[in-house]
């Protein structure tokens, strides 16, 4: 096991692989952030009420009731899920939704809107930084 780790630590191929993976993750994080910016820019805001928490797998997802700009009521399950529940029953939350796709509504919070993009970007950036240090270390000529 340790010999595999040693070989990986001394392989520039692994460093370049992580560099490429990190770059792809940075691009993915930027894409997710751009999509969120477009969603927020075109979304309408309303207030919703958490009516219950729905268990899916190990997580609890808030089920929210809200009215759109036409006064029509909607009930949706919103991501992300948490354990324990992120929201209490009857808690009021701000909702963002696009009028053309009301069922794609999201809670107006950092976790509900930005966490995925920022998370993917951050992991990708750390891959790139670590791989650059690794490649620099491997390419250093002994004196």
Task: Summarize the structure in words.
By secondary structure, the chain is α+β, with helices and mostly antiparallel strands. The protein is built from 4 helices and 5 strands; from the N terminus they run ααβββββαα. Strands 3-2-1-4-5 form a 5-stranded antiparallel β-sheet. The radius of gyration is 22 Å and the shape is elongated. The two termini are 31 Å apart. The model has no long low-confidence stretch (mean pLDDT 89).
- What is the typical, i.e. mean, pLDDT? 89
E-strand count = 5
General form: elongated
Major sheet description: 5 strands, antiparallel
Q: Count of helical segments?
A: 4
**Which class of secondary structure composition applies to the elements?**
alpha+beta
Strand order of the largest sheet: 3-2-1-4-5
What's the short story on this structure?
The chain is of the alpha+beta class and 143 residues long.
Chain-wise SSE layout:
Blueprint: H1 2-9, H2 12-42, E1 44-56, E2 59-67, E3 73-77, E4 92-98, E5 101-107, H3 110-113, H4 115-139
Antiparallel strand pairs: 1-2, 1-4, 2-3, 4-5
Helix pairs in contact: 2-4
Record keyword descriptors for this entry.
single chain, 143 residues, alpha+beta, 5 strands
């Amino acid at each position: 096991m340790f010999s595999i780790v040693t070989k990986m630590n001394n392989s520039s191929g692994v460093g370049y692989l992580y560099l490429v993976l990190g770059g792809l993750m940075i691009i993915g994080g930027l894409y997710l952030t751009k999509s969120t910016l477009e969603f927020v820019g075109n979304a309408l805001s309303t207030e919703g009420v958490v009516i219950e928490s729905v268990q899916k797998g190990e997580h609890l997802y808030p089920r929210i009731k809200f009215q759109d700009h036409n006064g029509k009521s909607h009930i949706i399950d919103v991501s992300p899920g948490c354990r324990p529940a992120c929201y209490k029953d009857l808690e009021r939350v701000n909702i963002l939704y696009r009028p053309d796709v009301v069922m794609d509504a999201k809670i107006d919070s950092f976790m509900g809107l930005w966490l995925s993009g920022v998370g993917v970007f951050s992991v990708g950036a750390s891959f790139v930084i670590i791989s650059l240090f690794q490649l620099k270390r491997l390419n250093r000529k002994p004196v």
